[in-house]
Amino acid sequence: MEWKIVLKHKENPWVIEIIGIGEDPHKPVELIIKSNTGLVQVKKVIEELKFKVEHPPAFLPSDIMQSSNGMYLWESIAYTYATVNGWTIESNLPELKIEEGEEIRKLREEGITPIF
Q1: Contact 5, 93 (CB under 8 A)
Q2: Most CB atoms closer than 10 Å: which of 13, 30, 45, 96?
Q3: What is the pTM for the complete model shown?
């Protein structure tokens, strides 16, 4: 199975594809990251995404954090990046039902809305 996350820049023709190969999107056997350009700006985006996946936020639910290279982790990091930096994101990952743990409930009670 091929799991795919695609980021497209809203103003430029830049595209980044994050592809996971394997039956389980939580634990892809192979991970491929490619773009339609070799521009320095796009390479910096890819490096930033890789860094954030290697150093994820501590508050991510265990459903997302089942693997240090899982597609749901990549999707969460890419979604956060895309919404802040002028990109759109598409994914063929099945919707993940996240059960809120005590930490997430406490954040919501404090008026903080986590973005996954």
Answers
A1: yes
A2: 45
A3: 0.80
**Alpha carbon separation from 12 to 7, 36, 81, 89, 105 (Å, rounded):** 12, 11, 16, 14, 38
In one-letter notation, the amino acid at residue 82 is: A
HSE of 43, CA atoms in CB hemisphere, 13 A: 4
pLDDT digits (tens, 9 = 90+) for 48-102: 999 999 988 877 776 677 777 899 999 999 999 999 999 999 999 998 766 656 6
Three-class SS of residue 23?
Answer: coil
Assigned domain for 89 exists: yes
> Residue 57 sits in which domain range?
2-109
* Count of structural domains within the chain: 1
Phi, psi of 28 (to 5 degrees): -65, 145
